[in-house]
Amino acid sequence: MKGMTSPIFGNLDWTVTPYTDLLQQVNSSTIVSAGAASVLVLGGIAVLVLFTWMGWWGPLYRNWLTSPDAKKIGIMYVTLALIMLARGIIEGFVIRAHQATALGTLARPESGLVSPDHFAQLFSTHGTIMIFFVAMPLLIGLINFVLPQQLGARDMAFPVLNQISLGLTASGAGLVMISLLLGKFGTGGWTMYPPYTGKDFSPGEGVDYWLWAILISGMGSTLTGMNFAVTIFKKRAPGMHFMRMPLFCWTSLCVAIMLIYAMPALTVSSAMLALDRYAGFHFFTNDAGGNMMNYANIFWMFGHPEVYILILPAFGVFSEISSTFSGKRLYGYTSLVIASMSIAVISFTVWLHHFFTMGQSAGVNIAFGIATMIIGVPTGVKIYDWMATMWRGRVRITTPVVYLTGFFLLFVIGGLSGIILANPSIDYQVHNSTFLVAHFHNVIIPGVLYGMLAGIHYWFPKAFGFRLSETWGRRTALLFVGGFIFTFMPLYVLGLMGMPRRSPTFQNPDFMAWMYIAAFGGVLMLCALASLVWTFWTSYRNRLALAVPGGDPWNGSTLEWSTPAPVPEWTFPRIPHVDKRNDWGEKKRAGDPWKGPETYTDIELPANTALGLLITGGSFALGFAMVWHIWWLAVLCCLALPGLVALRGMRLIEPKIIPAAQVEEADRRFRQQVASLAPASRADEETERNRGVPDISEFAG
Amino acid sequence: MSENSLYPGLNLGDKHGDAHVQAESTVFGFWVFLMSDLIIFGILFAGYASYLDPIGLAGGPGPKELFDINSVAIQTVLLLVGGVAYAGVSLTVKYGHGRGNLVAWLLVCAAFGAGFLFFEVRDFISQAGKGGTPQVSGWLSSYWTLVGLHGIHVFCGILWIFAMIGQVATRGIDDVVKVRLSMLGVFWHFLDLIWVGIFSFVFLVPLA
Q1: How many CB pairs under 8 A join A and B?
Q2: Using 50, 70 and 90 to split pLDDT, how confident is the model at A107?
Q3: pLDDT over 50 at A156, yes or no
Q4: CB of B32 within 8 Å of any CB in chain A?
Q5: Taking Cα atoms as reference points, which of A199, A207, A183 lies closest to residue A270?
Q6: Among A112, A276, A316, A643, which one is least packed by beta carbons within 10 Å?
Q7: Domains of chain A, first to last
Q8: Across all residues in chain A, what is the average pLDDT?
Q9: The pTM is what?
């Protein structure tokens, strides 16, 4: 089909879109591909038209895309993640729909909604998107938004680098997105194991899309980890000792350390695979001394810490909300700190349990099996700590608490199925089956997704000045809980019945009943997604009724609740001095927490810059050029990217100064507004009487 | 900890005021980044060890046929002396010995780095001539990747040196430039550290 590589367009030509396939053959599979590509194209056009019509390009560029403010960068990360989440959930639904129709016969083995190759692309993009472009941006976004506020810092240690990290993540996501329209994605699953993904067995652009999306966004994540670590080590407010930091900051520190040490492994394994594919190296090939086990080892040296990178921020969120919404101090702060750090360290010693069956000795398997079981201990400590926090508290069943409850019930099941898999002899029986698929969805959805959505719900008022609708929030949470149960519990059964994961087809009619239940779960997940979108929309429409200008809608105890909602770009009028753990709560106890500072000074903020945007464009073009072998563009980008950085280095960059008078005026207005608002009791928390000023006499955290 | 050792490398010291304070987080951050880079090299070292067996060599040329230990010794001397030469840069900045000295020391470092690269590239070319290209075996792939990546780092270090000379020329030795030179120093010494590992494990171990 493909001719010679063109010097200008590389391997790109008019046949690479799914419309060509549709013209050649009309069936459900090609219709789904072409439909997905059309959604991308029409969605892009719709956004272009909408932004042009509303005149939003200028404000978007000035206030968001060029802003080095960590809070805005955090919001952009979360937005990116939610867009990718929509695609990931829809793909998950198509996977379920396909398997519900995939009962084949020996005479006609290929059946179902999509073709086997298309199905393989679906589970590969679904996994890649959900891990790298939903979970990671969600947690990095949330940490970006919350961490500096909780630490009492003005911003991240390296604001412009932060912007570049976002840009690199976004261009990785862009590469995965554009693969809907141009060419195909890889079919090797989200781990892309060679030798199958080597040039011999997977020619074409598919694996290359994955490689460049991972290499580029992985670089962004490494830089983010460094940024978080330096922020926590060097930018805490005076008096904010380590053991006074909120738990979310502790889990962020664990994440930072793990990002720094785990991401390089992914970079190495992907770079080696890229060298195999582009330059004919023999790291992982079948012949000439290649060794694919090295890929499995290096990939999972990243991959296992990665799952704890994903879960620990959620643990941080649950620590905050279990305390806030039960009106009690967090139980066992020190044990939670020790448990988080233990998880971070032990997570580097268990990677081999991802391939117990690959032929190493029983002794090695046992060592890693035991390490895997040990990591369950600190996790168990945490669950008990949160339950003890809520014990006899005045628990309000807000949306985050619904997520927390779902997490308690489901995550423990997922954790226990992990302990089962940690036993190598059992793992031999169920590895590579849908039992495993059920297990990791069982920890990632109730852990990461619920945690992040709970966190978004919890901190949303701080970002936008109004609460999200509790009614719709709870409905969404319940739908996600129900959707999870119906989709994934059947997969445990199917796995034990012997169904291999990633099967495009199967011949056992006994599977069908469970397949239909799982497909129904997929429908519930779609409803949950729709309900999530509706939550944002309906809350936006009711934003006046839901507004909380007082900035402390949940009667919280950490520093971020001391500022207005939405929080001003300088966050704190003066960097606070911290005297105790839960400093804001202690100030409430002492009475009159909203006393303003006596004097104000000029505030220095990093100036806006287009550097992040330029790097986004350059890195996207680089990845795209490499995928399609457009060498001139790749060379150009390789020269332009360091050139941009070098040019910026030559320039003197003046910071943005916010004059003291402006800060004072805004801050005094906020204090007057707080004084004029009627304090809301806990019972009124969900009503319009909650204007963000809580009744501090009720504070008990 | 004394106030004069806030971050890795030679500290600028209190009399540099803002630059010293700013360097605390910036140089520390860069050091953290290098630790992540160190992991990359660590994994490549482990990979190299795993390919250094008859299966990994896959019948292709091996260390004894390809390595020219004299050339490697020359490279080692050039790189390490180049590393020591950076002390000239650091001390010039710390004690304010002027732009001319600073640029001269930077050029000395770049010259040693370029000398190192000259011998390294010459080795690569002669190895390729003996049939030792990375496409031949798993071991050669890992050798070229590990040593090549270090070489690319040295090349980037030289580019960075010239970028800094450009900055010194256009904006002078201001606070930002001082902090960047401190980072460059940490980077330049880091390359020596990696090379000590390469010299020992990549070249000496298989020849021993």
Answers
A1: 118
A2: confident
A3: yes
A4: yes
A5: A207
A6: A643
A7: 7-43 (no CATH), 56-547 (1.20.210.10), 548-605+653-701 (no CATH)
A8: 91
A9: 0.93
